[in-house]
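Subgroup meeting minutes
Present: P.N., E.W., G.H.
Scribe: E.W.

1. P.N. recapped why we're keeping a running log of single-chain structure predictions: easier to compare across weeks, and new members can see raw inputs and outputs side by side.
2. G.H. added today's entry (124 aa).
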Amino acid sequence: MTSLKSAALAALFALGVAAPAFAQSAMAPTSAPAASSTMAPATTTKPAKPAKVKKTTTASKSTAGRFKTEAEAKASCPMDTVVWASSKSKAYHLSTSKLYGKTKSGAYECQKTANAAGYHAAKN
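Output recorded in log:
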């Protein structure tokens, strides 16, 4: 009967389960049995969830190529004309326009980038 208790406690120890207190007092050896090389502790790890990727469906939502200052835009596109692209009206204004840098929803862009994003030249 003692060997059966020893085997049961060894199995519980290998699984990482604490042995009951009464079982340790009834058994003569107080040291824990050595873990067997054939029995590995059970690990329950959940697979990692894939990271959520935010998708942008239209070019108008993209902020690539848009700059807060005119100097940043000029540094980014030295061979192109810098325009003020108004995202609300989807129109861009040249530096000679009275709305250049004035609309609430807009940013400085290169003219080629604005054309590629679907913006059109303003009528004024």
